[in-house]
Amino acid sequence: MAGGLQKVGFLKWAAELISGSLVGMEPVTIVILLVILFFLFHYFFASVTAHVVALLPLFLGVAANLIPTEMMQPLAILLVGSLGLMGIITPYATGPSPIWYGAGYISQATWWKLGAIFGFIYLSSLVLLGFVIL
Predict the structure, then answer these.
(1) Which pLDDT band holds residue 134 (cuts at 50, 70, 90)?
(2) Pick from 123, 130, 132, 134: which is nearest to 38 by CA?
(3) Which tens digits make up the pLDDT trace of 48-101?
(4) Region 111-128 average pLDDT
(5) Is the pTM of this model over 0.90?
(6) Which residue among 32, 73, 83, 92 has its CA within the 20 to 30 Å range from the CA of 105?
């Protein structure tokens, strides 16, 4: 997937759009916004692996040009930490999700509702942690 996104120019376009929007902001604000965007962009990916391969290098590359070097490690930890948390947000977010969904244990409406609720809680906690470690 990452190769296809690169081939059609999506990754370059996304990096320019994101970095252009963040230029001139405070470094802490940039880090928090990158974490939020990284988390929310998972809605567009059917697996965590595809998300990581396509977006992690892009987000770290954007950050490398906008924030001080000493903030790169905390940003990387926050981005990677979000990967385990975002598995709940959609019925296709991780490998086991379609199995649970397909088995009928959770209805589609309930999954999306709980995904939104817990996604908000997890993302809020991650942002709060970002403020603490930065």
Answers:
(1) confident
(2) 123
(3) 888 898 899 999 999 999 999 999 999 999 999 998 888 778 888 777 777 877
(4) 92
(5) no
(6) 83
Number of domains making up the chain: 1
C-alpha closest to that of 49 among 12, 94, 82, 81: 94
Rg (CA), the chain: 16
For the chain, the DSSP string reads -HHHHHHTTHHHHHHHHHHHHHTTS-HHHHHHHHHHHHHHGGGG-S-HHHHHHHHHHHHHHHHHTTS-GGGHHHHHHHHHHHHHHGGGSSTTSSTHHHHHHHTTSS-HHHHHHHHHHHHHHHHHHHHHHHHHH-
Nearest to 41 by CA among 30, 55, 31: 55
Decide: 47 and 94 in contact? Cβ < 8 Å: yes
Quote the domain boundaries for residue 49.
Answer: 2-133
